[in-house]
Amino acid sequence: MNNYFKIAVRNLLKHRLTSFINLFGLTVGLTCCLLILVYIINELSYDRYNENADRTYRITRVFYADNGSTSFNLGALAPAFGPLLQNDFPDIEKMTRLFSSGGTFKYGENVFNENNAYYADPYLFDVFTINTITGNPKKALSEPYSVMLNEEMAKKYFGNEDPMNKVIRFSNQYDMKVTGVYKSFPNASHVHPDILISFATLNDSSIYGKEALATSFGNNSFYTYILLSENYPVEKLQASFPHFIDEHLDAVYKNAGTPSKRTALVLQPLTAIHLHSHLDSELEVNGDISRVYIFSAIALFILLIAAINYMNLSTARSSLRAREIGVRKVVGAQRSQLILQFIGESVLLTIIAMVLALLLTWIFIPSLNKLSGQHLLISNLIDAKILIALVLLPLVTGVVSGIYPAVFLSSFQPVIVLKGLFSFSTSRINFRKALVVVQFCISIILIIGTVIIFQQLRFIQNTSLGYNKDELATMFYYFQGDDAYQAFRNEMLQSPSIKDVTRSSRIPSGSLLDDLGARVSSGDSLVLTSAELKFVTTDYEFFRTYDIQMLAGRGFSRDFGTDTSSYIINAAAVNMLGWNTAENAIGKAIVYGGVKGNVIGVTNDFHFESMHEQIVPMIFFLPNRMNYSNWVSVKMGGNDLHASIDHLDKSWKKFLPEVPLDYTFLDERIVDLYQADQRERTIFTIFSCIAIFIACLGLLGLSVFTISQRIKEIGIRKILGASLNNIVTLLSKDFLLLVLISAVIALPIAWWIMNQWLNEFAYRIQISWWVFAVATIIALI
């Protein structure tokens, strides 16, 4: 073994270029694998910190249209479901709910808007593993007007003071007593509450009401979790839900058929939420299992390319070691010993590469965190199972890289090589060429993927949304009554830098969830339609502020008193309702949510949600029917944006001095919709470039070695009159032919893969032929 080690080191030092290419390729390949492994471990670890994660489930709710298709799929339930489920199913050990309720919190002179505040049942600490710093988790959320803060919030409001039993003012309406402080939820959690308010507060105050909480099957905003008993058959509980729905919701759906045909409850494992749940209402933006698969494939591709480099260069250099092998065999070396020697050299190189890769991983993890928006830690690798994998990785990589060269080299016949009659067989050369083809197949696929991802995201950025998103500031508002809002709006319009102000129940860049059921005119009668019409309440200025065009009719106007019961729909709704043209829709009668009115306008289709979603049929009406317009949009103009923001700030403080101004520009919100896609593009591009670079580096090493073996031939050709171009063409044509063969194989594979990826977008580019041409040219270059 000592002798083998010496020979291995001598060979590494003697053939420095080849050794560098192999070591560099394996180091970079292993570094990419480790970085992606840290990411994958992090993604797969979500919510597993909970001690009872394997038997904790979230219950979600599905709504079905008349034709049986899914209308929308919610991650939350109505408030009455939780207690009823626990009452009807004794195998549910614990049940807890979270109800999001952002607002202002004040202590002394400190006032902050907090968006991560949740009402929580007392059993939250039994279902989730939460580390309490102060307070009794069994009692902290049992009394009304109790509140718990995470450690960051406690520091934010109280500094170095003891927060226990201090009183903070919530939404300038309720005094809440601090009953505990808990450690922030881990990064690998699907929810991160900063503040927990006792659920009993909802019962006791006028926020919701005890009776409504016990009987309401609407307002599906309560995220409901259950803890099942050990080894309970989950399928049995799931199968019981239709009967449960029919029993308790019969009165709710008495005019709409069997309740379980209209809605359903679904058990969702807690550990599946982050990667497998993309419902219409999620607590936070989740990950995606497809990204885990994509980056896993890229890591394996990069490592495979590096391993192919080693195989190719080792077999190409075999002629230099032919006599060494012949002598070893003559003096008694067995073939198994030679195989062990050459695999040992490969493993030694891989171990060195692994040590360097661990160092580079530690260096580059902060950069990967910036690119991915994650909180990845190299400590994720410090786990018994992972450490075993890290030990095995260089061994497996070394064996895979070295097995073919070892078997090939050990097969030399000593008589032939010692007489100098050794030559490569055609099959050996063809195998090496096949490996080059595999390398460049992968490289071309990655080039095409990078170009198409870039094109799709540019398409999203440049496509008209159907409204003007520029210089629109949006904010959630807290005005009590219409008069207060109108006074604020009038104050805002005093500045010439403010073009318009409007309010609505939702704003573009959000989700469309609500459908109140519609009846539409059919001849002289109104009939129930299966069309899903998602509604948004708006005021008179909404369409003007957003510069949304009318295809027919008009917008809402204060000059028409009947507009308080009139409707505006979009072009998608016209098509869905079978009215053919926008002009035909004007004057048609609709009963929506029980209120009859006529269609007075039809808007162009505009992208309210992201381009991952199809534009859905929408209906708009004035907010007088429900106090549901909680978003203000301010259209700014002129050249002085700072003056507009200053005026907004002053007006806000004048009317809402207790509420900090918290605004976001709409174009920033739209960028956030595609943040995950942008990050995926960046990371994909970086790893693709690395893979292509390693492949090219291997080809460079192979070319250099091939040319060094043909120096005499080149000299003779030049003496006989060959030009530089003739020589370059002669030496390049074999490699160029291999790249062209790679392109022929890779192009259809790349087309299929990227077509699948593009299908995730409702609005997408068509793949152009020139992308394949460009990828092939880049590979040839």
General description of the model:
It contains 26 helices and 25 strands. It is an alpha+beta fold and 781 residues long. The longest helix has 38 residues, at 335-372. The chain is globular, with a radius of gyration of 33 Å. 35% of the residues are buried.
Q: How far apart, in Å, are the first and last alpha carbons? A: 44 Å
Tally of strands: 25
Q: How is the main sheet built? A: 13 strands, mixed
Helix content: 40-55%
Shape: globular
Please state roughly what percent of the residues sit in beta strands, choosing from under 5%, 5-15%, 15-25%, 25-35%, 35-45% or over 45%. Answer: 15-25%
Q: Which structural category do the helix and sheet elements fall into?
A: alpha+beta
- The number of helical elements comes to 26
Low-pLDDT runs of 5+ residues are: none
Q: Taking Cα atoms only, what radius of gyration do you get, to the nearest Å?
A: 33 Å
